[in-house]
Design a protein that fits this description.
The complex is a heterodimer of chains A (507) and B (161). Helices cover 71% and strands 1% of the residues of chain A. By secondary structure, chain A is an all-alpha fold. Chain A is globular, with a radius of gyration of 22 Å. Chain B has helices at residues 2-5, 8-26, 38-60, 74-93, 96-119, 125-150. Classes of the chains: A mainly alpha (507), B mainly alpha (161).
Chain lengths: 507, 161
């Protein structure tokens, strides 16, 4: 059984509770809230943009920056959702109905504060669950050999396809493209060249950072530049006088109102943590599920038309996914969402081989992550309160000014990754793929997850086959493998059943 | 009747299936070991399977398929991609501060002039342009300080800063 490592905890404590770490968390929170508050800018973008810093900064600073950005961005999305009826991030979409209705009723400040408090409480709950669950699950890790890992990676891939979309065809298509992009370049065992088309630069394959940066950022840049040229009137207008909350004297949220929303916060925190721990669903599904479940049990007659409880249910759920998303990452090395994939990439670049043994082999790093998750929440509260007046000004920056600056950072950030000009071309190619994904409405989760899991899957699969001398029954040899295969088959059956229900309901 | 069922969704799914099928067949003429081609074939198989499922869904129930945007954005996608490539080339050959300041200034001046023409008002245009050029220089300096001076990003020697 795992023993609490006092020495590791002490090292982690002294590392995290230092001025430099606090500074990087603060920068992350500010960047996250600011970018999250800009409609259309997913908070995966700032995380992708700050990813190259992991080559220079030590792990506690890098992860402080990224976790701060993640938590701040998850909350930041609610600001514009409440103020302008435009969710800053997809995870805040469920907040729009009640949040914006409250703003229209002159209770915007109350809604913003409820969003902030619910986010912090949900985030704290998710972080505590992470701390208490990750170690017991992580202790099972040494029992995972190549056969078990292969089964686990297949489970992860199947879950993403199952959960990510209402259209399974597009989920499979997306995962297939992710698989394919991951195998371009040198074979991981023999070094044979696969699909490089004779290009020397392609031998290194699609590097992760340029791929992620291009995939998330470029489609948004294309969309915004299109509007700047095609319809200049429609851009740069968000936040103009009519909804300038800071100029209005409004009543703030009372403690009684916060307590009255306990049901929404509790349901949001629990569901957000549960759904966040599964690969695939993410903050958007978590907030919608929590909002819907709470609508069935609430006593608030204004629910859906301006209810503080509605804001609390959605916001606590999306922030609760922040801590929970680390559970599959730290226990099995499976990123549960696109953002978790980015965080995993940062850990890998810091030299931490994320996987089932990370809790045992890198205990200090795991404790650092726990502490960062916990202390990021109070910082989120502090800066959430301080930055509310600032964000209103930021959202007024016209798209024609803002987006070229983001493009500059994207190009230089990509080049800085490896000092390799070809990475900019990779970034552009990934961006065009990302644009196609947006246009064709393909879910991006399966691509990112497949891209990250494929090398791991291929390595464990081929290692297992070598050990078993080509006997495929090896994959069913152990009890753990059998359980994982059963879960995989069970989840597919559940998915088919759910599909049948949806089809029946639509009829 | 058949023409109505051939939606863009289905056609794109079909094209992806055909391309993946082409690659799949090509793998049999590659000089690689079967084990090296195992995962690539799974990838291509998944693309084909996904494409076929999309086609089938569209063919059977075209009315519940995703509605794809008809906005013609391809020229903008190509334009932005070219701008990114050009900027990437420029900052490595001309200089980071110079390329950034010139690139941003050129774009912002063009947008400002275009807006002035559209609204038929040149009042305050010069001041606005000066402000934007100053902003472009500030961004260029910040980028230089952050990436080159602070993060130590490799920059080839260039004629201008």
């Amino acid at each position: 059984m795992f023993n609490f490592d006092m020495e590791a905890a002490r090292i982690a404590f002294t590392t995290v509770f230092a001025l430099d770490t606090a500074l990087f968390i603060m920068i992350g929170i500010v960047v996250g809230i600011t970018v999250g508050a800009i409609p259309g800018l997913a908070h995966s973008l700032p995380i992708a943009l700050v990813l190259p810093f992991s080559f220079i900064l030590p792990i506690h600073q890098t992860m402080g920056l990224l976790i701060g950005t993640y938590q701040g961005g998850t909350y930041g999305g609610s600001i514009t959702a409440i103020s302008f009826g435009t969710p800053g991030t997809s995870g805040a979409a469920a907040t729009v109905a009640d949040g914006y209705a409250l703003t229209q009723q002159g209770k915007g400040k109350k809604a913003l504060q409820m969003g902030l408090y619910a986010s912090v409480i949900g985030g704290m709950f998710g972080s505590l669950v992470l701390i208490f669950l990750v170690v017991p699950i992580g202790m099972m890790a040494p029992r995972f050999g190549p056969g078990e890992l292969t089964a686990l990676y297949i489970l992860a891939l199947s879950l993403v396809v199952v959960f990510s979309t209402e259209n399974p065809g597009k989920g499979i298509l997306s995962a297939g493209i992710g698989f394919f992009l991951a195998i371009i370049g040198r074979d991981i065992i023999t070094g044979g060249l696969r699909f490089t088309f004779g290009l020397r630069y392609m031998q290194a394959g699609f590097p992760l950072v340029p791929l992620l940066m291009g995939f998330f950022a470029l489609p948004e840049i294309i969309k915004q530049i299109h509007w700047v040229i095609k319809d200049p009137e429609s851009v740069g207008k968000i936040g103009d006088d009519d909804v300038d909350l800071m100029k209005k004297k409004e009543e703030g949220l009372t403690f009684k109102e916060l307590l009255q929303s306990w049901r929404g916060i509790t349901i949001g925190s629990i569901l957000g943590t549960f759904l966040g721990a599964l690969p695939g669903p993410g903050a958007t599904l978590a907030s919608y599920t929590s909002y819907s479940v709470n609508s069935q049990i609430t006593n608030d007659p204004k629910y859906g038309k301006g209810s503080l409880e509605g804001v609390a249910a959605a916001e606590s759920a999306n922030n609760a996914t922040c801590g929970a998303t680390f559970i599959p990452l730290l226990t099995f090395g499976i990123p549960g969402s696109s953002i978790a994939a980015l965080l995993m990439a940062a850990l890998i670049m810091e030299g931490i081989p994320v996987g089932p043994r990370v809790v045992v082999d890198h205990t200090v790093v795991v404790y650092i992550l726990f502490m960062l998750m916990l202390i990021a929440n109070p910082f989120n509260l502090l800066f959430g309160k301080l930055l509310i007046p600032v964000f209103t000004r930021l959202t007024k920056i016209p798209a024609s000014v803002l987006w070229p600056i983001i493009m500059v950072f994207l190009v230089i950030g990509t080049y800085a990754y490896n000092s390799r000009p070809f990475d900019i071309i990779i970034c552009i190619l990934a961006g065009l793929i990302g644009y196609f994904y947006k246009w064709y409405k393909l879910p991006d989760g399966p691509l990112i997850l497949a891209f990250l899991v494929t090398p791991l899957f291929e390595a464990s699969f081929r290692q297992a086959l070598t050990i078993a001398r080509g006997n495929y029954m090896y994959f069913l040899g152990s009890g753990i493998s059998q359980v994982i295969w059963l879960i995989t088959i069970g989840s597919i059956f559940l998915f088919l059943k759910k599909r049948k229900k949806i089809t029946a309901a639509s009829k | 009747m058949l023409a109505k069922k051939l939606t863009i969704n289905g056609v794109v799914g079909g094209v992806l299936t055909l391309v993946a099928a082409g690659f799949f067949i090509w793998t049999y003429s590659m000089r690689l070991r079967p084990m090296e081609l195992f995962v690539p074939r799974i990838a291509l198989g998944l693309i084909m399977l996904g494409g076929v499922l999309v086609i089938l869904k569209e063919f059977v129930k075209p009315e519940i398929g995703d509605r794809l945007s008809k906005a013609f954005i391809l020229p903008y996608a190509i334009g932005v991609s070219l701008m990114m490539w050009l900027y990437g080339w420029a900052f490595r050959n001309i200089g980071l501060i110079t390329a950034t300041a010139i690139g941003l200034s050129a774009w912002w001046i063009w947008v400002a002039v275009r807006d002035a023409r559209r609204t038929k008002s040149t009042k305050g245009l010069t001041l606005r342009i000066i402000k934007l050029v100053v902003l472009a220089i500030v961004v260029a300096v910040v980028v230089q300080l952050l990436f080159v001076n602070l993060l130590g990003m490799y920059m080839p020697s260039t004629l201008f800063p």
